[in-house]
Amino acid sequence: MKVKPLHDRVLVRRLPHEEKTAGGIIIPDTAKEKPMQGEILAVGTGIRSEDGKVTPLDVKEGDIVLFTKWAGTEVKVNGEELMIMKESDILGIIEGSARTSQAA
Fold first, then answer.
1. Residue extents of the structural domains in the chain
2. Rounded CA separation 41/39 (Å)
């Protein structure tokens, strides 16, 4: 199954979170927060203005992004937990990360 987000929505896969603190303490599963970083898997066409023109999104497939803690809706696609969220829930694009430099 393939999912294509509509309008100003994006499909995001959460990136794995560090299991240790900077000091080397291992964080148990019960104390872990869900990561607020993810990789964009698919993007919608953009938002339509009142005059009918479509403004494309600022993010693209493959971008690594930071998003708000309560962003989006979790969905399960082919057994994988993904998120669909509005572009406005994205706080920023992480530039120079390992994934974006590999894609270039």
1. 9-15+34-103
2. 6
Contacts of 65 by beta carbon, 8 Å cutoff, 6+ apart: 12, 37, 38, 39, 40, 59, 90, 91, 92, 93, 94
> In Å, how far are 2, 44, 85 from 41, measured between CA atoms?
11, 11, 12
What's the pTM value of the predicted model, to 2 decimals? Answer: 0.73
Length of the chain: 104
CATH number of 9-15+34-103: 2.30.33.40
Pairing of strands 37-43, 64-67: antiparallel
pLDDT for residue 2: 80
